[in-house]
């Protein structure tokens, strides 16, 4: 054993090159496979606790859209039901709802508020899709360009009235 060299104490080095190689490969892999979620926020208000029917004028519009399991009812709180839009086999007929919102907006250009009243157990996605159809739409501006149009951006949410 005379050929063996003796190491001096304290001259031993920690080998970290394998660990650094692992980090160099692992960090980009983890970053590339991370799921980044998008969050969207919808501004809503709750309807007023007490509704003053005495203060409403005949030409005031209190637009209400009732989302039922089989149809969507569009109407005025005082004036009654304007349209009933039956659901398609794939779900709510949002194109027709949006077209009716354009008709209401043409008659009441200064109104920006509306209420969505879903029945219990209506899927969240359905309520959001109906609100999107009420909030804005696309219009051909003179037939040459398509522009986004605000219809009823201030949307309140509440409970649907019980069917009789």
Account of the 3D structure:
The protein has 164 residues and is α/β, with parallel strands linked by helices. The protein has a domain at 61-157: Nucleotidyltransferase, domain 5, CATH 3.30.420. It is 26% helix and 24% strand. The protein has a five-stranded mixed beta sheet with strand order 3-2-1-4-7, with helices on one face. It has a two-stranded antiparallel ribbon with strand order 5-6. A hairpin with a 3-residue loop joins strand 5 and strand 6. Helix 2 packs parallel to helix 3 (124-135). It starts with 16 loop residues before the first helix and ends in a 7-residue tail after the last strand. The model has no long low-confidence stretch (mean pLDDT 82).
CATH classification, class level of the domain at 61-157: Alpha Beta
Give me the side-by-side strand order of the main sheet: 3-2-1-4-7
Q: Count the E strands.
A: 7
| Count of discrete alpha- or pi-helical segments spanning 4 or more residues | 3
Q: Quote the distance from N terminus to C terminus.
A: 103 Å
Global Rg: 30 Å
Please give the structural blueprint.
Blueprint: H1 17-33, E1 63-67, E2 71-76, E3 80-86, H2 94-107, E4 113-118, H3 124-135, E5 136-141, E6 145-150, E7 154-157
Helix pairs in contact: 2-3
Jot down its keywords.
single chain; 164 residues; alpha/beta; two-stranded antiparallel ribbon; 7 strands; 24% strand; elongated
């Amino acid at each position: 054993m005379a050929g063996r060299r003796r190491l001096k104490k304290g001259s031993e080095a920690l080998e970290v090159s394998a660990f650094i190689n692992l980090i160099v490969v692992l960090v980009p892999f983890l970053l590339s496979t991370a799921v980044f979620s998008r969050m969207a926020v919808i501004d809503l208000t709750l309807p007023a606790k007490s509704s003053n029917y005495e203060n409403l004028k005949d030409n005031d519009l209190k637009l209400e859209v009732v989302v039922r399991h089989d149809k969507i009812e569009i109407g005025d709180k005082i004036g009654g039901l304007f349209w009933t839009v039956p659901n398609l086999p794939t779900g709510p007929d949002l194109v027709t709802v949006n077209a009716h919102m354009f008709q209401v907006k043409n008659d009441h250009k200064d109104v920006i508020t509306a209420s969505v009243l879903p029945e219990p157990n209506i899927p969240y996605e359905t309520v959001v899709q109906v609100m999107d159809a009420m909030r804005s739409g696309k219009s051909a501006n003179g037939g040459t360009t398509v522009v986004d149009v605000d219809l009823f951006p201030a949307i309140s949410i509440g409970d649907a009235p019980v069917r009789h």
